[in-house]
């Protein structure tokens, strides 16, 4: 019997690539997004089901899970991928922007996990794959709110995996580095620095350097393969780091004194190039 996966945020980028990859591997794919009526390619594929799901709406999550079990009778993996980045200097963020960031990236992910667990407990099986980021273990400027959510996803997932392992339920964390998607253009919320001239040079330099790094990132299909590996892995491995930049930076973070590591980040992100 084919396995079944539910993926949040499957309309574009990593989520879309993941839905396509799982479908190619013969899984039943439940690709969820806020407006599935706009999606045509995934809808036309065999073993692919599109459902509406907004991670900030608990009833939406409840409906998608119920529909999945009504159709397939089981669920082998849930991929928590939905998210976006709030960027800009922290002083420019509004309280509403910060709350929205946490509602989507953290509280929405937690609610999907919470509502999935009764089904997984009944099965005594299932895998939660939570897409975090290398930005959940190190930081760069202009993304303080985004980093906060991803660090929280890391801590939540690590703690949760202890609770669920005795029940036959596994938790996996995906940590992508820079990825070539439309993530920043499509889903970023940019805080305006108008009226805060003291930050303008920092924003300009850091933005240019990080955009240049992003242009060298991995394709989303690389992350999709890592997610599939994690969902299929029956070992107790928790973290899956994706991308040469993420692997190198996390290695340096682990090996170097903090002051040295922070100096490297500043030299790459905060200094004008050329």
Kindly describe this structure.
- The protein has 274 residues and is an alpha/beta fold.
- It has one domain (4-269): Rossmann fold (3-Layer(aba) Sandwich).
- It is 49% helix and 15% strand.
- It is built from nine helices and nine strands.
- The strands form two sheets. It has a seven-stranded parallel sheet with strand order 3-2-1-4-6-7-9, with helices on both faces.
- The longest helix has 29 residues, at 95-123.
- It is globular and about 55 Å long.
- The model has no long low-confidence stretch (mean pLDDT 94).
Question: Can you count the beta strands?
Answer: 9
Q: Any guess at the CATH architecture? A: 3-Layer(aba) Sandwich
CATH top level assignment: Alpha Beta
Instruction: Provide the number of structural domains.
Output: 1
Percent helix, as a range, is 40-55%
List unreliable stretches of 5+ residues.
Answer: none
Helix and strand topology:
Elements: E1 4-7, H1 13-24, E2 28-33, E3 48-52, H2 58-72, E4 77-80, E5 86-87, H3 95-123, E6 126-131, H4 144-164, E7 169-176, H5 183-187, E8 189-190, H6 200-214, H7 220-232, E9 239-242, H8 244-255, H9 258-269
Parallel strand pairs: 1-2, 1-4, 2-3, 4-6, 5-8, 6-7, 7-9
Helix pairs in contact: 1-7, 2-3, 3-4
Keywords:
274 residues, Rossmann fold, globular, 9 helices, alpha/beta
Task: Give a brief description.
This protein is α/β, with parallel strands linked by helices. It has helices spanning 13-24, 58-72, 95-123, 144-164, 183-187, 200-214, 220-232, 244-255, 258-269; strands at 4-7, 28-33, 48-52, 77-80, 86-87, 126-131, 169-176, 189-190, 239-242. It has one domain (4-269): NAD(P)-binding Rossmann-like Domain (Rossmann fold, 3-Layer(aba) Sandwich), CATH 3.40.50.
């Amino acid at each position: 019997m084919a396995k079944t996966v539910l993926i949040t945020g499957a309309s574009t980028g990593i989520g879309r690539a993941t839905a396509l990859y799982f479908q190619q591997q013969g899984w039943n794919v439940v690709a969820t997004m806020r407006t599935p009526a706009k999606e045509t390619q995934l809808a036309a594929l065999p073993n692919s089901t599109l459902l509406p799901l907004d991670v900030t709406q608990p009833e939406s999550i409840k409906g998608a899970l119920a529909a999945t079990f009504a159709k397939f009778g089981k669920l082998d993996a849930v991929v928590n991928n939905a998210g976006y980045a709030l960027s800009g200097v922290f002083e420019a963020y509004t309280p509403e922007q910060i709350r929205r960031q946490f509602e989507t990236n953290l509280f929405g992910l937690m609610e999907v996990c919470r509502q999935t667990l009764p089904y997984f407990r009944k099965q005594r099986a299932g895998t939660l794959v939570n897409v975090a980021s290398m930005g959940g273990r190190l930081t760069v400027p202009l993304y303080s709110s985004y980093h906060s959510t991803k660090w929280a996803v890391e801590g939540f997932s690590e703690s949760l995996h202890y609770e669920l392992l005795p029940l036959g339920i596994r938790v996996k964390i995906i940590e992508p580095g820079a990825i070539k998607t439309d993530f920043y253009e499509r889903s970023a919320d940019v805080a305006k620095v108008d009226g805060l001239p003291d930050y303008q040079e920092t924003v300009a330099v850091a933005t240019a350097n990080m955009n240049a790094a992003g242009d060298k990132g991995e394709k989303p299909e690389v992350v999709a393969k890592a997610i599939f590996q994690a969902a299929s892995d029956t070992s107790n491995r928790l973290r899956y780091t994706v991308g040469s930049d993420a692997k190198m930076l996390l290695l340096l973070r682990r090996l170097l004194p903090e002051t040295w590591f922070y100096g490297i980040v500043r030299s790459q992100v905060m200094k004008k190039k050329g």
